[in-house]
Amino acid sequence: MRAPVWFFDLDNTLHNASAQVFGELSAAMTDYIARHLQVDAAEASRLRGLYWRRYGATLLGLVKHHGVSAAHFLHETHALPSLESHVHSHAHDLAALRELPGRKFLLTNAPLAYALRVLRALGVADCFEAVIAMEQMAMFGELRPKPDARLFRHLLARLRLRPADCILVEDTLEHQKSARRVGMRTVWMQRWLRAASKTQGPLGGRGLRGRPAYVDRRLSSLRQLLR
């Protein structure tokens, strides 16, 4: 293998989004749906969960079925005035990120402005060659965020990368399954999933002990990548 090319997810991979940020995002999305679709909070919450499960991102269902503006939705729901005070990670994880050899890209389904705020709060914005956020995932006029395998193929072709040289590090298994389908290697980051499962129960009914066949490694710390 040549020098590795790393693609890192953001939320629950580089920082503990489950602690508070995800709750604030969910509330903001539910409020947005209730206001713009003129439904009550219970129906808004149902639609948010339904579209996330069906399409991998609530936004895709809103665009497809309700004509919602993607840019407006992302701006409104990710504004989060107190975001920076709720971004937490481990210092040795962030230090390992700096030490890790190879090219590094951030690959997140979050909007660019939000991703940059989180990276700056963590102090690792300069670690990445580029940030590939939701706005950069449009293909042929439609958004194709993770876990769409077409995104991975398009991205690798655009960057002129061999799939075998690339490693996806993140917490979401469905995204890793798609990455493996196109020939990338995969690492399942579980630190923040384990922390969340202690207070919220099993995440999605899926245990954290096993390792699916499409996952090369599972980690509890980014520092383990150095080994």
TrEMBL record:
Pfam families: Hydrolase. Keywords: Hydrolase. InterPro entries: HAD-like_sf, HAD-SF_hydro_IA, HAD_sf, Pyr-5-nucltdase, SSM1_domain. It comes from the Bacteria. GO terms for biological process: nucleotide catabolic process; pyrimidine nucleobase metabolic process. Gene3D superfamilies: 1.10.150.450, HAD superfamily/HAD-like (3.40.50.1000). GO terms for molecular function: nucleotidase activity. PANTHER family: PHOSPHATE METABOLISM PROTEIN 8-RELATED. This is Putative hydrolase of the HAD superfamily. It comes from Roseateles oligotrophus.
